[in-house]
Specification:
Elements: H1 16-25, H2 34-47, E1 51-55, H3 58-68, E2 76-80, H4 89-93, E3 97-101, H5 112-124, E4 131-133, H6 144-153, E5 159-161, E6 169-170, E7 173-174, E8 181-185, E9 198-202, H7 205-215, H8 238-248, H9 251-269, E10 275-276, E11 284-285, E12 291-295, H10 305-313, E13 320-321, E14 337-338, H11 342-349, E15 350-353, H12 361-376
Helix pairs in contact: 1-8, 2-8, 9-12, 10-12
Length: 377
C-alpha cells in the first residue's frame, strides 16, 4: 500500500525547534512570553500595516472581532455562505443570527450585488446588519473594493475572514488588512501553522489592545482578580507562537510552493473536457492555499467530482469536495439567505486536490495521472 497523500499537511521549516527550545530553556511555558510578542511583531512586519493579537484559533479571533464590533443577542450579521462553518459559528456565540449571502463566479466569494440587496432587504425588515463577513475562499481574494464601498455606504463594519489567505494580496495590500478587522488562522492544514492558533488584525491599535485584554480573561489591573468585563481564554501559548516564528521564516517559500502545485494541475488538467479552474482577477495575488477544480458534467463524458474523488481515494490520495454552503447546512436551517445558485453549483461540481507545500513532484504527477486516466477510459 502506497504512502497516503494528504490534502494539506503541516510542513515544518527547521527553525521552529529553536524558538520552542528557547521557551523551554527560559521556562516560559505559560500562555504568554517572548515568542508571542515576537510572533505578533513578525506578522505586523509581513502585513505591512495594522496591529496583531496572537490568539488560540481563527475562530477565537472572529468571535473577538464580533465582540469588538458590538454584536449582541438579537442582531444580524451578514456572512458569506460559501465557507467553512467557523466563519458563521461565532455569530451564534453572541446570540446573533447569520444572514447568508451567495457567491459570484469570478472569485467564488461574496457577491457584492447580492450583498447590497440583502442589506436593503434587512433594513426594510427593521434589522440593519451589525457586520459583514466576506471570506477569501481557498486564498483567492474577494472583491473587496466593491464590498468595502457598499459597507461604507451603509456604515457597517467589515470583518475580513482571511483564515485561508495569509500570503494573498489585493493590489498592494495584504489580505487580512482590508477590513475593519482581519482574521488569520494557523490551523494544522493552513499555509503556515502553529499547531492550533489564529490572529486578529486591525489598524485600530486600541481595539487590538482591548482584544488582548479580553482574550486574557479580562483581568483588570489589581493585586487580586478583578473583572469588569466578560473575558475569554483565547491567548496563544508561548510554545505555539514559537512554532509560528519559525514558520514565518518560510512563509514566502510556502506560498511559492502552493502556487507551483496549482500551476502543475492547471498545466496537466486544463485540456480535459469539462475541467475548469478559477483564475486570479487582475490586481490580485492568491496564495493558492488549496488547488481546486470544477467539473462540468455536461462536457466531461459523465465524469463527476465524485468520480475523481473516489478514484484518488483508491490510491490513498486525499481530496475533498468544496465547502458545502452554510445556507444548506442543517444547523442553519431557516436562517435568512440570499442565493443565486453559484455556491450550490460549486459544491456539487468542485473538488479540492492535494495542495501541501511538502508534496513531491512524483506525488503531484501520480495525482494528475490518475485523473487523466479517467478521461482516457
Amino acid at each position: 500500500m502506497s504512502e497516503k497523500i494528504w490534502l494539506s499537511s503541516p510542513h515544518m521549516g527547521g527553525t521552529e525547534k529553536d524558538f520552542v527550545t528557547a521557551a523551554f530553556d527560559t521556562n516560559w511555558i505559560a500562555p504568554l512570553g517572548a515568542n508571542v510578542d515576537g510572533f505578533e511583531e513578525d506578522l505586523e512586519q509581513y502585513l505591512k500595516e495594522g496591529y496583531v493579537a496572537a490568539l488560540s484559533s481563527g475562530t477565537a479571533a472572529l468571535h473577538l472581532a464580533l465582540v469588538l464590533a458590538d454584536v449582541k443577542a438579537g442582531d444580524e450579521v451578514i456572512c458569506q455562505s460559501m465557507t467553512f462553518s467557523a466563519s458563521a459559528n461565532p455569530i451564534t456565540y453572541q446570540g446573533a443570527t447569520p444572514v447568508f449571502v451567495d457567491s459570484e463566479k469570478d472569485t467564488w466569494n461574496l457577491d457584492p450585488v447580492l450583498l447590497e440587496q440583502a442589506i436593503r432587504d434587512r433594513i426594510a425588515k427593521g434589522k440593519k446588519p451589525k457586520a459583514i463577513i466576506p471570506v477569501h475562499l481557498y486564498g483567492m481574494p474577494a472583491k473587496m473594493n466593491e464590498i468595502q464601498a457598499i459597507a461604507a455606504s451603509y456604515d457597517i463594519p467589515v470583518i475580513e475572514d482571511a483564515a485561508e489567505a495569509l500570503g494573498s494580496w489585493y493590489g498592494d495590500k495584504a489580505c487580512g488588512t482590508l477590513g475593519d478587522f482581519g482574521i488569520l488562522s494557523f490551523n494544522g492544514n493552513k499555509i503556515i501553522t502553529t499547531s492550533g492558533g489564529g490572529a486578529l488584525v486591525s489598524k485600530d491599535k486600541a481595539a487590538i489592545v482591548k482584544s488582548r485584554f479580553l482574550a486574557s480573561q479580562a483581568r483588570d489591573p489589581a493585586p487580586h482578580y478583578e473583572h469588569t468585563h466578560i473575558g475569554y481564554n483565547y491567548r496563544m501559548s508561548n510554545i505555539c507562537a514559537g512554532i509560528g516564528r519559525g514558520q514565518m521564516k518560510v512563509l514566502e517559500k510556502r506560498v511559492e510552493q502552493r502556487r507551483a502545485n496549482y500551476q502543475h494541475y492547471e498545466k496537466e488538467l486544463n485540456a480535459l473536457p469539462g475541467v475548469q479552474f478559477v483564475s486570479e482577477p487582475k490586481g490580485t495575488f492568491s496564495n493558492r492555499w488549496l488547488s481546486t477544480i470544477l467539473i462540468d458534467p455536461l462536457q466531461s463524458n459523465g465524469i463527476t467530482r465524485e468520480t475523481i474523488r473516489l478514484a484518488l481515494d483508491k490510491y490513498q490520495i486525499e481530496s475533498r469536495p468544496l465547502w458545502k454552503p452554510m445556507h444548506l447546512q442543517p444547523v442553519f436551517a431557516g436562517v435568512p439567505a440570499y442565493v443565486n445558485g453559484v455556491s450550490e453549483m460549486l459544491f456539487n461540481n468542485g473538488l479540492c486536490l492535494p495542495s501541501g507545500s511538502n508534496l513531491t513532484q512524483a506525488q503531484l504527477q501520480q495525482t494528475t495521472d490518475i485523473i487523466k486516466a479517467l478521461w482516457n477510459k
